Design the sequence.
């Protein structure tokens, strides 16, 4: 049985089973929780933590996420990366790799939406484009637009964005309306033995239903040339995303439009840049050492578990953290080095509300009678 159908069938069965016994209780707010954070050790100190695995709240939603960690410093022959859980969440990390990339000095490597790394010509990147903002659909959606000249045939939209703390809070409150039983329920409807395509289908269906993705459209000469769906990016430091775009060379104007649920996204900047001709071939590095560090006791060695990707996940909550180290290697002469951390896993976050499931709230959500954007529009 396909996962979306199992969700509907399960919700109906729960409604029948609980309708006569469930007592309504005021929703209890869940403790603040968020996705894990990754920090790289640079030569001058640690850089700002960057959120990873946003939205991957259940085992079946586990995925790989790639995030830039700046110019890693060689500390005693090692590159050092730290992964922290956030708030009341429990991080469950399956695999960690370091992707090192020695590139020409004039190239700026930026991660794309589907995992590839895009070569941006640094010298040709224009200044930040001014954005016009509009509120749509009775206050439930908002859009940012900008029109500019095409730079080159090989172009890319480079945006720096993140989701807001408001979006996380609204989602937690919305989920709390369905009750704490949603955790076991969501683990039941899609088992981890579901294929990768099945898991992606469920994830895409639910995130779109929740109004989470940021829709990006490029219109060239009045015709839509390309559309993208940027998935959740955790709050905090904005993440740069490159969206490759091939443009005509006839001098046509390019209109870039970003649209998302109102107050869910923070757009720091948008640029239309030229893609460099360089081919980027990152070299994957497995951890040379990894330890789970906790104030409660000595570090626990977990190197094999974060190397194998065998679902033997390392679980930890704050203030514990995962310290991962890689053997440093020499940079190719005349090149600059960029580094990306690839993290595979998910996180568990406590769900508020009553102790069971409010089947009516689940059915309303599945039927479209209730929605996260509509709910969020009513919040202060």
Sequence:
């Amino acid at each position: 049985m396909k996962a979306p159908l199992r969700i509907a069938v399960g919700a109906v069965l729960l409604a029948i089973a609980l309708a006569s016994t469930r007592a309504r209780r005021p929703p209890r707010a869940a403790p603040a929780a968020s996705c894990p954070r990754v920090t790289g050790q640079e030569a001058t100190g640690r850089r700002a933590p960057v959120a990873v695995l946003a939205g991957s709240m259940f085992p079946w939603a586990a995925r790989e996420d790639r995030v830039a960690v700046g110019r890693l410093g060689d500390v005693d022959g090692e590159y050092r990366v730290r992964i922290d859980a956030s708030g009341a969440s429990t991080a469950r990390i399956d695999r960690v790799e370091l992707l090192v990339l020695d590139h020409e000095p004039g190239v700026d490597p930026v991660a794309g939406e589907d995992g590839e790394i895009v070569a941006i010509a640094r010298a040709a990147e224009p200044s930040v484009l001014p954005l016009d903002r509009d509120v749509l659909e009775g206050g439930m959606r908002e859009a940012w637009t900008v029109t500019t000249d095409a730079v080159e045939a090989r172009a890319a939209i480079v945006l720096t964005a993140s989701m807001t703390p408001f979006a996380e809070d609204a989602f937690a409150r919305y989920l709390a309306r369905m009750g704490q039983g949603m955790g076991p329920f969501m683990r039941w409807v899609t088992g981890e033995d579901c294929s990768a395509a099945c898991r992606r289908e469920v994830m895409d269906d639910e995130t779109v239903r929740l109004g989470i993705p940021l829709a990006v459209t490029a219109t060239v000469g009045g015709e839509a040339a390309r559309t993208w769906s940027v998935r959740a990016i955790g709050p905090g430091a904005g993440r740069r995303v490159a969206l490759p775009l091939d443009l005509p060379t006839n001098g046509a104007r390019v209109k870039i439009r970003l649209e998302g649920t109102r107050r869910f996204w923070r757009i720091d900047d948008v640029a239309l840049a030229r893609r460099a001709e360089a081919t980027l071939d990152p070299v994957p590095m497995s951890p040379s050492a990894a330890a789970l560090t906790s104030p409660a006791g000595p570090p626990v060695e977990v190197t094999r578990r974060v190397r194998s990707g065998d679902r033997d996940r390392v679980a930890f909550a704050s203030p514990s953290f995962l310290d991962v180290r890689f053997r440093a290697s020499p940079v190719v002469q005349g090149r600059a080095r960029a580094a990306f951390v690839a993290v595979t896993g998910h996180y568990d976050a406590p769900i508020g509300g009553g102790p069971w499931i409010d089947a009516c709230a689940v059915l309303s959500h599945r039927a479209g009678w209730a929605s996260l954007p509509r709910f969020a529009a009513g919040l202060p």
Notes: The longest strand covers residues 90-103.
